[in-house]
Amino acid sequence: MISIENILSLAHPDMASEVVMPGAEKIISGEPLQNIWNVYSSADGKMHTGIWDCQAGAWQVHYSEDEVCIILAGESILTDLNGQQKTVQAGDQFVIPAGFKGTWQVPSYCKKVYVIYEA
Q: Which of 10, 61, 64, 76 has a Cα-to-Cα distance from 97 of 20 to 30 A?
């Protein structure tokens, strides 16, 4: 039975992060070291949510999943394959649909809440 104890806070200061880097073949610039605090994954493994942060750098992205993002701190610049850019910063809330290809750039630092759904 699901009870109130099953409701999870995204703020988990005592939770260890998973530290990752994009594959070397995807990195365009910098050393975009990323921390991921995955707070929740659905039983079927299709939905995940948590906190992500990243240091300065740029890398290629290809989204196979849909992602809801809420930027908590800093900023990022997303660029599509046509060269069109969108800068997102603290307070911005947006969805990246599955199929998006381009680059993700973090000028100095970025922190976000993410909700990922992979059909």
A: 10
* Domains (range + CATH), the chain: 17-117 (2.60.120.10)
* Residue-wise DSSP of the chain: ---GGG---S--TTSPPEEE---TTTEEEE---EEEEEEEE-TTSSEEEEEEEEEEEEEEEE-SSEEEEEEEEEEEEEEETTS-EEEEETT-EEEE-TT-EEEEEEEEEEEEEEEEE--
Indicate the pairing of strand 18-20 with strand 47-62.
unpaired
What are 44-79's pLDDT values in tens digits? 999 999 999 999 999 999 999 999 999 999 999 999
